[in-house]
Amino acid sequence: MTPVIRTRGLVKRYGRLRAVDGIDLDVRAGDVYGFLGANGSGKTTTVRMLLGLVLPTAGEVELLGERMPRAGRRVLPRVGALVEGPAHHGHLSGRTNLSLIDAAGPGGSRRTRRARIEQVLEQVGLGGIDRRPVRAYSLGMRQRLGLAAALLRRPELLVLDEPTNGLDPQGITEIRELLLELNRGGTTVFLSSHLLAEVEQLCTRVGVLGRGRLVLQDELARLTAPTGATVVHTPEVTRVRAVLDGRVLGADGGRVVVRGADPAEVNARLVSAGVPVTGLALQRPTLEEVVLAAAGTSADRVEGPR
Amino acid sequence: MIGVELRKLFRRPRTWVTIAVLNALPVLVAVLLQLTDLAPRPGEGPPFLSAVLTNGALFPLAALAIVLPLFLPIAVAVVAGDAVAGEAQAGTLRYLLARPAGRTRLLLAKLVALMAFVLVTVLVVAAVGYVVGTTLFEAQPTGGTTSVSGTSLTQTELAGRSAMAIGYVTVSMLGVAAFGLFFSTLTDSPLAAALGALAVLVTSSLLFTLDAASPIAPYLPTRYWLAFVDLFRDPVLWRDVVRGLALQGVYVGVLLAAAWANFTTKDVTS
Amino acid sequence: MAARGRLARWAAVALLVAVLVALPSVVAALPADDADVPAADLRAAVLDGADVGFSGYAVSAGGLALPVSDRLTAAADLFSDRTLMRVWWRGPDEHRVDVVAAAGETGVHRDPGGTWTWDFEAGTATRGLPASLALPAPPDLLPAALGRRLLSEATDDEVTRAGARRVAGRDALGLRVAPAEPASSVARVDVWVDPASGLPLQVEVYGEDAALPALDTRFLDLDLAVPPADVVAFTPPPDATVLTAPDTEGLIAEAGERAPDVSLPAELAGLPRRSFTGVPGAVGVYGRGVTLLAAVPVPQRLAGGLREALTASPEAVTDALGTRVAAGPLGLMLVERAGGPAYVLTGTVTLDALAEAARQLPGAAS
Asked: Would you say residue A125 lies in a domain?
């Protein structure tokens, strides 16, 4: 598959601080890519380098097959972005804001502008918006308007930084549905977030950033693949140990982890021995466990000298 | 792009408030002058003000002379300082650049919008001055207007020279606009950028009065501001007008180049 | 990568600034073509060029702060300020000189019948008659007029050549006048002349031991075509207040009558007395060319005011002879002796020469 975003040895140094330290991103067409990282791990700096806002100290960025920031004028019209929250001119209406941003660069045909604006407003759930200035919008409405601006030219790639910020649970579900629908239509989505649950529900591929380095980059399905063990919930842990001698890897309250990738076989042995089984599942690591294992401590933690 | 910047600027209420406030001072001066009939003594007060009592058609020029030293540059510095830094502060700059607006194109569009702002402001001041002047004072007693050199100018000549003066004052403000624009690319605070441009102007005005600074006086951005008076001498004294235009051109060129060098290589982190 | 691009762009801007900053000094440093013209010939060319018509823009800057009373500020400002003048010259009695100020101008239009003085800010047009003696006025400070006046009485052995320089975009040849009189406070006068027309383009007056000229007047722009007559002529505008200037001849005659009746010596401080038309007999003018000394007996009531003005100057020297002060090459002395009349001595002479002259003045009416 063709890479939609590719970086090689991407470095950004601020003085002696290496904010981004040699990142090799690989986002393929059709991905919903979850870009995970704690606050201060270099996520935002990386996103800004992808869009040509921050110029890399070293390394290369390729967007839709072309070098950034050199080819920005050709590439960026095909990219929709939401970086660190929406921003609009508060004294103008939402429609005027969209019209201005569309007219500010290439690739936004004046002829279709009005229709496209109405369409994206409809898509993000602002179809009935009036002439109120953006100043009077709620946080959620502004977030939706920011998303509308990103969708205005039906981009091939969406780069979204915390897109569900400020939305209520219904709003989050709506936006998630919208992104999945766009993705089904062929849009690649690059989603930068620190909300593991959001990424876990949306993404097909995940990259994890820790202290400026890409510590993990893989298919979500592979990361959370079964470990080869089975989790058994039972009120009688000691009897499980007795029945499955040597196969118990660990026990915690009523939860016993048993070696064996076939829950049916485990169940059959326990039930035949008369051990009550209240729950049974293949063991899969959660994304949280994967990320914590890979990234270590939070970057905004400041340790005292020991 | 330029159209976008013009729409942003002129759909902004603050722009028109600034222009309105700018007009308040000349109108106040006109009303006081009408009520008291006290012309400034020769050598004091803004140019043309003493002549207004006998000829109201000169008030647009007096109004320009009133706002030129301080009010107009402040207004221009504030709007220019806001050009890039204001977008950065509001966060809209990153969306403009990711659109992509192109950094050089954005700078040029901002400069053109600033020029339009200066021109509109000067035109409004002149127009309000004309209306106020001709209503409060005698329009023209004998048909001709007396030039600074004591010759008579016909209405056509006066209109032509007034138009040139408006153009000259507009160009004079471009230096301020360029300073504001340059500082605006250095900082994310519109206030700091405007204050920076004003600091340059205050320094320039101060040095201009200082004998020790006379070697650099011809290069001070405020040096030729009052040369629009020369357009009303007969024959017109072009020397300072031409130099004023050239100097503003140099300032705009250099500062735009500096703004370009800074802005096109700058990390936008706002 | 980004850092290198940044550096390159800033370097380009720095280069642009450097070129622009260097440009004026490079243009100023362009050498002027010197021509092998003897000093005497150049001086003769200047004296012959009195009828050359021209128009231009001149600036005169003086460092002569005269401690004089308020009544003479207009004349005193001429020597202490920067005066910008536009001039249209068709001849000695047909020309126009506008003193340009930031907010107005004062124009003097000379025609054969007299002068019109237009003051824009006051809105007045003043008609005056040609006078043989008047206070220094802006036209007197034009390089052309001043240079010619200072060269007219110089002897050939006082005048030497002094290289060439560019003035108002023209190659000007230098003439240096070093006055021979020991009493003179003027070290030298440099007159820079356009050799083709004989028009002085710049005049610099240097006091003794002074690196900077005490008076520097030069053209900034010059056009050597005779200006049209309608630019020089003046008709008072309809809304102007038309005034008539006080009759200076009458005033001077009156002042001469009121002055204490003294007879001045034929020589003061080694300078011979000379006569000018229009100068009343009570006023003695001594010297020649650059070195001039005037002796004027003054009534006691005027002397009091002048003494206050003089003693206010920190450099004033007061002794038994009176109070004297120098402003650059210009000396001014109030001579007061018990029982005798008071005199004002002024001119381009040293303070020592002023003291010597004071001793030679007659003590009382004879």
From this structure: yes
